[in-house]
Amino acid sequence: MSLQGVLQQRITSAQGLLQRAELLCGGWRGGRSSWVSCGPSCASCGDVEGGGGSVGGVVSLLHVFRYRDAAGCSRSLLVDVVADGGLTWVKAVGRKAEALHNIWQGGGQYGDKSIISQAQDFLSASRQQEVQYRHPHVVFAFYNGVSSPMVQRLRDMGVAVRGDIVAVNAMMAQKGEKEEEPFGEEEEPEEEEAEGEEPEEEEGPEEEGLDEEPEEGEEPDGELSLPRVQRGRVLARLSFPAQLQPQSCGSVNLDITTLISYVSALSHGACRGKQLFACAAAVTDFRLILDTLGGPGEKQRAEKLLQRLQLVEDQPSQRTLRLTLSNKVNQRSISIFGTGDSLRAVTMTANSRFVRAAANQGIRYNVFIHQPRALTEGKEWRATPL
């Protein structure tokens, strides 16, 4: 079943549970509020489904990445949609533009995190996660609109935006810009007070929308009230960027399992157009296996292959040396995969156990995993014809 199919199945199941909870929660205190709090979670899953259907090359949904913040502490980040083979991270935002803008201006409740702060977390994590030695591209998809000042701020940070960009009241835009400025000379608060008085004098000649809102008493003495986001005034509608075409890496680091596959009587040949590397640990163990199990043709192909590739010394990367040894993470694998990481080359391997074990420790490698093959020529003489 596809990822979209699994997500749709979960959404249907969640909706059924919400209907059952609505019938059960009416008789006890606080039950109604608990049921209402579950609704947005189900709605956010619908946003994730929409985001996954708008991009290509979806790898995973609701994927958790580990990264380190500026203080060096380990953090986790939930990415709604990982697309384009891992080169695009999509965050689906379902909150209304008014609420997002209000939180950004400091009017949210305790613990509310603004979209700008979340974007900083996404950028920090993406710089520590490489796909084909390229950093993922961050996209924020707003399904209930986003204010134009927030869009400009996100673009300045390097985050792409998808969704409806709505206008903000001119007075609110000016105040938002003042809050963005760093603390400076003592003259700046005087300028803000002057700007707070101007809208009261110019309410008549301004737009009709400004004439109606001050009557409700939302702007007493020039203080900030709820952001006046004009959802009916859409400035632009942005779709997802075109699907990125992953660029293949020109350097390949060969694991022992790949060296065997390249010379095996079952699957030899077909390596071209790449610069091949192999570390000393891989070649040494490969020769031992070849001398024990290899046939004449396989040994001949192995010599041609070893002449073609570039032999390098074991030079594991610093992050590889932080791995904890276990039954799936041994010193030989650390030397092979760590050397490929230092060379910034894609490691070809059939050792998926090590790749998963390293990922569980927070280290993900750029690898190409293939099916394992064995040296069979030495056993063909005793094979039984079918």
UniProtKB/TrEMBL annotation:
Residues 272-384 form the DUF1308 domain. Residues 174-227 are annotated as: Disordered. Residues 54-193 form the DUF5614 domain. Residues 179-222 have a biased composition (Acidic residues). Belongs to the UPF0415 family. This is DUF1308 domain-containing protein. It comes from Eleginops maclovinus.
